[in-house]
Amino acid sequence: MIEPVLLAGHRTFGENRVQEAIERWEPVRDDVYSGLDLRLIGPLQSNKAEEAVAFFDVIETVDRDKIARAIADAAQKKGRCPRLFVQVNIGEEVQKAGILPSVADTFLQKTVRDYGLNIEGLMCIPPIDGPKGPYYALMQKIAARNGIAHLSYGMSDDFEVALRFGSNEIRVGTAIFGSR
Q: Which family does this protein fall into (predicted)?
């Protein structure tokens, strides 16, 4: 199912699970399809940080201190660090991961100061119900206050709104590949 998209020239793919991504992409990553940009968009467990740092080009789910520390340790050990995004729990939903908007500035500063991580972007998944614009506007404000250039929000069902609110990285896998 992915091959037609690859043959059409698409090279950026998001993955939810570290092990699945490695199994899917490692055999073809460099030899068959060059220039892949593989992103972890699912939750990261600290015991998978080393594998994620070694494999992914971008990790979009830095969502707590323990993960930031694990990524920093893994990056030092592996001699490389992928591009990093902090996941913000923009709707403050108990069932979702991410830092709360009220502590975003502090968390971003801490990742640089305490762990030497370069956070390039912010990612969020807003509540499923209701308008998305207010959440995306808040993400823009957090990014502006912290000099963050990359904003990853908006999915197959709301990417147009996300683009109007400054997202420059959207996730439309469901529209292309169907539901998981």
A: Belongs to the pyridoxal phosphate-binding protein YggS/PROSC family.
